[in-house]
Every structure is written in C-alpha cells, then in structure tokens.
Write a structure and sequence with these properties.
Largest sheet: none
Order of helices and strands: HHHHHHHHHHH
Radius of gyration: 19 Å
Shape: globular
CATH architecture: Up-down Bundle
CATH class: Mainly Alpha
Strand content: under 5%
Structural class: mainly alpha
CATH topology: Butyryl-CoA Dehydrogenase, subunit A, domain 3
Number of helices: 11
Oligomer: single chain
Distance between the termini: 46 Å
Helix content: over 70%
Number of domains: 1
Length: 177
C-alpha cells in the first residue's frame, strides 16, 4: 500500500490549515506505524515511534520544500524514529526475537524473520518492499549511498531466504545420503 496524499492537502497542511493537517496525519499515521512495526517488531514501541514521527511531521510540514518530496520525507522521518526507538529499546527487541523458532509455521512468519535482521538491513527491506522506495530514495532517507542500500537489500534477501527456508527433516536428509 503506497502513501497517497493529494497535493492540495499537502499544500494546505504546509499553510497550517487545521482540517488539512488532520487529514494528512490521518493518512500518514498508519504508514508510519507499519514501518515502525516492521522495524521494531513490537506494537507498543511501534506506536510510540509512529506518534513521534507524526509529531515531527506536524511540526515540520511548513518547512517541506516540495510537495513531490513529501512521500520520501515522511518515510525518512518514520524510519528515523523507528530506528531511534529500536536502538533505545535494543535489549527489549533482542529478547523478543533472540532465538529462532523451531516450529516451521513460526519460521515462515515474515515479521519474525525480519526481527532476526540487523536494524540497518530491516530498514532497507521495509523501505524497499513496503514503502516501494528505490535505492536512491532509500539512500537519501538514510543518508547512505544507493550502492550501500542495494548491498543491504541483497544481504537481507540472502539472510531471509535462509530463515524462511524449511530445513529438511532428519528422515529426508538420511534418505538422500
């Protein structure tokens, strides 16, 4: 699901028109929450990050230079706040995803698999596959070269493939020996 806000709503919000700001935040908040949830892996912490991102968007929307930059700007703020909360609560996050589940159904859960990636890899994957940003846009949002983004996505794919690939049972492995 892409973040779609009509340009006239963005312009009106930049001019601090209350109904437009309310509409803008109503549309933006679920996207900020989904990004944060994918990065952090915890609903309560994701709500905190999305709320902080919304407050920053509200505060800074008058300074947005270009309506065309709005989508990447929102994702940059949401990502930055999610990473900040994730780092602040690193002990909590690592406890919640410390050991991979042995149950095949649990291993197939993409959110659980994402939780096993480093924050940098998780952010690149979320912004690429959820927010539909290209490597240049992600690089601009994170302040890293687009080549670094492409490397992170490729590395994350390899790690996710390993996490999501069901391991052969002992019987199958013995039979093929």
């Amino acid at each position: 699901m892409r973040l779609l806000v009509p340009p006239e709503i963005i312009e009106a919000a930049r001019d601090a028109q209350a109904p437009a700001v309310e509409e803008l935040l109503r549309v933006v908040w679920p996207h900020a929450f989904r990004i944060a949830r994918s990065i952090i892996g915890d609903d309560a912490l994701a709500q905190d990050a999305a709320q902080e991102a919304s407050a920053i968007i509200y505060r800074d929307i008058p300074r947005l230079r270009s309506v065309d930059a709005f989508r990447a700007w929102v994702y940059r703020i949401a990502t930055r706040e999610a990473v900040r909360v994730a780092k602040r609560h690193a002990a909590y996050v690592s406890q919640s995803v410390a050991e991979p589940e042995t149950d095949v159904d649990a291993r197939l859960d993409i959110l659980r698999a994402l939780g096993h990636l480093s924050v940098d890899l998780r952010v690149a994957v979320v912004l690429h596959y959820y927010a539909h940003l290209n490597s240049a846009e992600i690089g601009a949002a994170l302040g890293v070269p687009s080549a670094t983004v492409r490397f992170r996505i490729a590395l994350a794919r390899k790690r996710l493939q390993k996490l999501l690939r069901p391991e052969p049972s002992g019987a199958i492995a013995e039979a093929s020996s």
